[in-house]
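User: For a benchmark we're assembling, each entry needs the component sequences followed by a predicted structure for the full assembly. Here are entry 17's components. Please fill in the structure.
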Amino acid sequence: MGDLLWPGDERAGDLMSDSAMLNAMVRVESSWLRALVDLKVAGPDAASDLSGLVTEDDLTGITDRSEAGGNPVIPLLELLRTRLAANSPAAARWLHRGLTSQDVMDTALVLCAGVALDRLHAEIDDQVSSLMTLADRHRGAVMAGRTLTQHAVPISFGLKAAMWLQGLLDAADLPPGRAGLPGQFAGAAGTMAAATELAALSGHDDPPGLALDLAAHASRTLGLRPHPPWHTSRHTFTGLGDLFVACTDAWGRIANDVLTLSRPEIAELAEPAADGRGSSSAMPQKVNPVLSVLVRRAALTAPLMSAQLHLAAAEARDERPDGAWHTEWSTLATLTRRTVVAAAQMSEIVSGLTVDTERMRAAALTASTDLLLERRTLSALFDDPAAGQLDIHNDVHSADPAGYLGANDLIIDAVLERAGSYLRGSS
Amino acid sequence: MGDLLWPGDERAGDLMSDSAMLNAMVRVESSWLRALVDLKVAGPDAASDLSGLVTEDDLTGITDRSEAGGNPVIPLLELLRTRLAANSPAAARWLHRGLTSQDVMDTALVLCAGVALDRLHAEIDDQVSSLMTLADRHRGAVMAGRTLTQHAVPISFGLKAAMWLQGLLDAADLPPGRAGLPGQFAGAAGTMAAATELAALSGHDDPPGLALDLAAHASRTLGLRPHPPWHTSRHTFTGLGDLFVACTDAWGRIANDVLTLSRPEIAELAEPAADGRGSSSAMPQKVNPVLSVLVRRAALTAPLMSAQLHLAAAEARDERPDGAWHTEWSTLATLTRRTVVAAAQMSEIVSGLTVDTERMRAAALTASTDLLLERRTLSALFDDPAAGQLDIHNDVHSADPAGYLGANDLIIDAVLERAGSYLRGSS
Amino acid sequence: MGDLLWPGDERAGDLMSDSAMLNAMVRVESSWLRALVDLKVAGPDAASDLSGLVTEDDLTGITDRSEAGGNPVIPLLELLRTRLAANSPAAARWLHRGLTSQDVMDTALVLCAGVALDRLHAEIDDQVSSLMTLADRHRGAVMAGRTLTQHAVPISFGLKAAMWLQGLLDAADLPPGRAGLPGQFAGAAGTMAAATELAALSGHDDPPGLALDLAAHASRTLGLRPHPPWHTSRHTFTGLGDLFVACTDAWGRIANDVLTLSRPEIAELAEPAADGRGSSSAMPQKVNPVLSVLVRRAALTAPLMSAQLHLAAAEARDERPDGAWHTEWSTLATLTRRTVVAAAQMSEIVSGLTVDTERMRAAALTASTDLLLERRTLSALFDDPAAGQLDIHNDVHSADPAGYLGANDLIIDAVLERAGSYLRGSS
Amino acid sequence: MGDLLWPGDERAGDLMSDSAMLNAMVRVESSWLRALVDLKVAGPDAASDLSGLVTEDDLTGITDRSEAGGNPVIPLLELLRTRLAANSPAAARWLHRGLTSQDVMDTALVLCAGVALDRLHAEIDDQVSSLMTLADRHRGAVMAGRTLTQHAVPISFGLKAAMWLQGLLDAADLPPGRAGLPGQFAGAAGTMAAATELAALSGHDDPPGLALDLAAHASRTLGLRPHPPWHTSRHTFTGLGDLFVACTDAWGRIANDVLTLSRPEIAELAEPAADGRGSSSAMPQKVNPVLSVLVRRAALTAPLMSAQLHLAAAEARDERPDGAWHTEWSTLATLTRRTVVAAAQMSEIVSGLTVDTERMRAAALTASTDLLLERRTLSALFDDPAAGQLDIHNDVHSADPAGYLGANDLIIDAVLERAGSYLRGSS
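Assistant: Structure for entry 17:
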C-alpha cells in the first residue's frame, strides 16, 4: 500500500489511493443515480446499488484506458454500463445522465479529502493535548533561547512548546475545518443543462429547480454540502492545500527544533524511542531523529504542492481548463497523503518526546553570562551614574537565567487558554 | 516609484516601498516608546515624537549598513538615537528598550500589509459590484460553452461572469479579511523578558502583566490586535500570502477568459479601450489585451511567492530562524504590491469590459449542432423505441442554443445573493 | 502499473516504480559485493548472485519497515541477509560492508534515471526528425503570426515548427545528455573509511587506493561513471531535473500552440486521430486535443518538482541532510516518469499532426490588412514626400501575406542544420 | 541603490537596476541603428550616438507610461524620437525600424545578465581558490562526521571543504559559462520581416541574407552571439536561472554547515569577523553568523525564481506569450542580483573562515567511541571466532578517530585536481 520512496507512507493506509478514488467515483455515480430515482426523474427500475460492481482488479484496465479521454471516468462508465446491462438495463441507461467527467472527478476527490480531513483533525486534537501538557509541565524548565543559531536570552521549554502549539492552532483554525466540503454536480459546462432537460422530459414543473434539488440530494447522500457549480472556481482544492501546508508549516517548525536540540552536542530533546527506529545500515551506535527528519521532509515539499494547486486555479480557462485541471488530481492526492502521514508522525513525536530539563538548565547556567547580558543593559538605564548604582543592580541580579523569563507564564497561559477553547469547540 | 520591469507597478504607489517600510519602522518604535511613557515605565521626559526624525534621504545610509546586523533596524536605531540625543536624551536612552529587531520588522510589515489589505478590499468591493452587473445583465446572452478548448454546451455570458464572481467571493471571504492584524512586541526570544524587567525596575507590581499591557498598548496605538509573541509561528504572513494568491487565482481565471475571448477569431470580449493602451512598437493595427496580459502575469507568479512564505514558516527554527525569516520581507513586499496592482487592473477590466453579445449569439448559432448534441442523447432516453418518438423530440427541440441553458438563472441568482450578502457585510 | 490520477502514466511502464527501484537497489548491492570479491577484499566464497533473491512480493514488507531507518535499505538488507544465510553465509556477512544506505539509494536512483534518459533521448530523436519534416515541408505555408493573442505579421507554419524544434534542441543539448551518470559508493560520511578499512584488514598495500578501485569497479559494473563521493553535492539530481524541465518547457510551448490552433474558431491544427481519443463522458461531438492537454499538464508541474530538487540540494547539511535528502527520491521518481510519459505523447503529436494549410492561408488572407500594416509603415520610410511615391509602393505590395515572410527560409535552414548536426552526433 | 528589505543588496551595485536596464535598452537600439547604417540600409545621416539621450531622470516618466503597451519600450522610443528629431531627424525616423519591443527587452536583459555572469565567474574563481586552500590545509584536521544530525564516522575538515568545492565546481561548469549569450533581433513575429523589407527597399540583392547580417552585426556590436530568433524558445533565460540556482545550491550547502558548526555548543567554525557584523539590537554579546544567514536566505529563494522562469518558458504561446513573457523580466533581474550578492558574501565567508581545528579534534576524541563503532564491526568480519582475535583487533585500533579517515587524501586530491583544471581553463 505504501510508497517505497516515501518511508512512512503506509501510515496513510488506503487514503487517496487509486482504489479509494475508484470507490469514491462509483459512490458519486451511485448518489446521482439515486437522486434521479428518488426525485422521480428516472423510473424506479433505474435504482441500483453500484457498490461492488467494480473492484480493485479493474483498476489496471481503467487506468490504461484513461488517457484517451484524459480522465478515468469514461472507461469506468463503460465498465459499469456493461456490468449493469444484464441485470439492470434501466440503471445502465440512466447511469451518469446529467453529469460530466469533471463532476465525478471533483466530487470523488472531495470525498477522499474529507476522510483525510477527519483524520487530520483527530491527529491535531491529539497534538494539541500533548503540547498543552508539555507547555504546562515545563513552564519552569529554563533553557537557552537561541536566535540566528546563537544564544540569546533564557526561555522555558514550556514556552517553546506553547509557541509550537500556537502555530498548530493557527493552522487548525483554518477553513474548511470540520465544515462540509462541497459536492460538484454541474454538468458539461456548469449550467446543469442535462439535469434540467431530464427534469423537463420527465414532466416536472420546475426543471431548473429540480436540477438543483438533484444536486443537493446527491451531495447530501455523500455527506457533502450542496453548492453552485465550481468547475472553474477552484477554491475547494486550494483551500485544502492552504490548510494542509499550514499544518506542515507548524510541524516543520517543531521538527526543526527537535532536530537541532537532539544534536549530540546539545541533547536537550530526544524523539520517543522505538524498536529499531533511527538505526543505520552501517553504524551501530546511531539513533537518528528519524521521525523529525521525515516530518521535515514533508514540510519542505508541501508548499510547492500547494502552489501547484494555486497555479491550477489561476490557469482555469473556458468552462474547463485545458491541462491545469488535470494537474490537480495527483497533486492533491499526494499532498493529502503526505500531510496525514506527517500528522501521525508528529503526534508520535509530541506525545513521547523526551525532555532533558537537567541538561537544559545546565546549559543555560553555563551560558548565563551571555544569556543575561541584555538584562544588565536594562539595569544600567536606571542607574544614577553619580551614585554608582550599577553595582547594586548587579548584586540584585542572581546569575540564574531562570530569573529572567519575563512574561513566560502569562504567555503560556494565553496559548493554553486558546488551545482549551479549540478542543472544547472541536469535541 | 514604479518598477520598470513590472509595468503598472506604479499603481501601488508608495505601498511597501522602502520609504513606507522605514516610516512604518519608526512608527513601531514610536508606539513602543509611547507605551513605556504612558504606562509609567519610562519617565515623561522620554516622550518624543519620532516622526520626521528620519527621512527618505536616510534610506541609502540605512540600507547600506543593514547587512552587518542582517536587518535594517540597527542602523535605523543608531540614526534615531543620534538625532534624539541633543533634544531628548531620555528618549534616546529609552528608544527600543524592551524590543528586538524582529519586533520592529514584523510589526512594520504588518502595518504596510494592513494598508494593502484596505486597498485590496476596496478593489474587491468594486469588482464584486461590476461582476454582479455583468452576471445579471447578460444572463440571457447565450454563448458557446467551451471545455478543453472545444465547444461543449451553451452557456450565458451572465453565468460565466457569475462563475468569475464566485471565485472572487471565495477569495474575499478568507481571513484575515478586515479583522485586525496582530502586532509583534515579543522581545529578544519571545518572552518579553526585557519589557518585564523594565516594569520591575520601574517599580510596578505585576511586571509580567505590565509587559503584556505595554504590548497591547503599542499594538492599539498602531491599530493592530494584541497577540502573544509569534516570532516563530508565522501564520500572520502565510495567511496574507494565502489571501493574496487566492485573489490572483480568481483574477487569473478571469484574465485567461478575456485573453481567449478577445482573440480576433473569437472576438466576443474586448478590454476597455484607453488612449494608447495595447499598442505595439512595430505594428500600428495592434490593440493587445494588455491589462489581462498583466493580470495573468501576476497570477502566474503569486503562487510561488506564497509558497516561499510557507517555506519560511516551515523552516522556522530556534527562537528566530537563521535565514528563513529573512526571506519573508522582500517576498511579502513584492507579493503585496503585485496583488494590489493586479487588483486595480482587474477592477478596470471588469468595470469596462466590452461584451459583444451579438457575436456570442451568432457563434453559438453557428455551432448549435455541436452544442446541442448532448441534449439529443438525453431525449433518446425517453424514447419509446417501438413508437419512433425520436422524431417528435427532434421537432420539439428548436435549434436555438438559448433553449438549453439549464439552471442558468438559478445559479446566477445564488451567486448574486452571496455577493449581495458579502457587500452588505463589508460595507 | 499506471497511476489512475495521471492518465497516460502507464506509458512509463516500470520506470522508477517501486519494484524497479527495489531491483536497482539489489543490483547496487550486487555490484559492490562483486567488487569486494573481484578485488580480493572478500574471499571467493562471498561471491553471490543476488538477483532473484527479492521479488515484488517482498515490496510491501520492505516498504512497511522502512520508516524506522528513514529509508528502505535496512529492511532490504535484513531480507537479503536472511535469505543468503543458508546457502551463502559469507555473502550474507559481506553484503553491504563498506557501504551506507545513501550509497544504495543514490546509485539505485541513478540507475533508474539512466534508463529514463535513454528513453528520453530516443523520443527526442524521433521528435527532432518529425519537427524537421514539418519545418521543411511547411516552409511556404503562410499563416497569421500572433503575439499577445492578436494578429501580428505573417509567418509560415514551417517557421513555427522550426521554433518548436529549436526549443527542443536547446533542451536536448543539456548535460548529462548521453554522458555517463555517476555512481555513489562513498561510505557512511563520504570518506570511504569502511572500504579502506576492509582493504587494510584484507592485507592490501594501498588501502585508500583500493577503496577507490572498489568504487570504480562497482560503478563500471553498473555502467556508471566513477566519481568522488557526492553525498552532499547534489548536482547529479538537480542536473537531471534541469534537463527534464527543459524538455517539458519545450513540449509545453508546443502543446500550447496546438491547443490554441485547434480551437474550433481557428482549427489550423489538429492532433492525430485515434480511436476514442478526445471523447467526452457527456458530449458525443467532442474531439478534445487530449494529448496536448496532458503534455501541458506535465509542463505546468515539472518546474516545481525541479525546484524541489534544487531546494534539497541547497538544504544539504552535515555529511547527510536531515530531511532534504529524503525529499529527492519521490520527487525525482515522479518527475522522471512524467517526463517520459510527456515525451511519448509529444512524439505522437508531432509525428501525426494534421496541418490545415488551406485554413491557415485563408485566415491569413482574411487578416491581411492587419498583418501587412507594419510593412506599409516601412515603405513610407523610403517615400519622397515631394514625389508621392507612396502609391507606387502600395502598388508594388501585393496583399498576399506570403510576400512578407522575411528571412523565413534562412531561419528555418539554420535550425534544420543544427538539428541535423544533433541527429548525426547522437546516432 | 540597495533594497532595504534584502540586506546586502547594495553589493550588486547598479546591476539589473532600472537605470542599468534603461541604459541597456538604449544600447540595443543604438546597435541596431548602427547596423542599419553600416550595412547601408539607412543612409549615413541616420547614424547617431544615442548614449546620453535618456538619463535616470527619465526613468519615472518611462516607467509610468509602460503599462499601456505592457512594456517600457514604447515610451522609451517616444522619448528618443522626440529628442532625436531636432538634430537628427533621419535617426529619429530609422530608430527601431525592423525591431519589436521583445527584441529590445530580451537583448537588454541579456546584456545585463552578461555583466552579472562576469562578476559571478570572478567570484567563483575566488571561492575555488579559497576552498582549495581550505581543503588542502585542513586535510589532516579530524572532526566528527555527522549524518542526520548525529555523529557518524570521522572526517577531516579538508574533506568537508573539498565537498563544498565539488558542489561549486558542478555549478561553475554549467552553460552558458563564459560562452557568449545570444542577441535577439527577430522582429515582430520572429521572421525578421521588417528587416528583410528594409533591405529590399534599400536595394540590396539578398534581403533575407542581409537581415541576418544586420542581426549578426548588432549582436557583435554588443558582444553577443548571433542567434536565430528565440522569441518563444526561452532557454536563454532558463539556462541562466539553472546556473544561478546551481550556484546558490552550492553556497546554501556551505552556509548550512557554517551555521550548524558555529552554534555555541559546537563552535568549530566562525565567520570572519568584521566591525559590527552579527550584532543585535538588544543583546550585546551576540555575534551572529550573519553572512551565512543571508546566503542561506538566497539559497531558499533562488529555486522558486528559477522555477518561475521555467514556467514562463513552458507557457510560451503563439509568437509572443500573453503574460508568461512578462513574468521573466523582474524574476530574472531579482534572481540575478541576489545571486551576485550571495556570491560576494560567500567569497567573504570562505576566504576568511575561522577553523578551530583544536575544537574539532577535541570533539572527535570525546565522541570517538561512537565515531569508531563502524570500524569495530568491520574488524569482526575478519575475526576467527575460534581464536578470539577480536581483542587483537581492538588493541591494534587506537581510539584516535584520525586513524579512520579512509580515502580522505585521495578524495581531496581528486577534487583539487578538478579545481585546478577549472581555474586553468577559466584564466
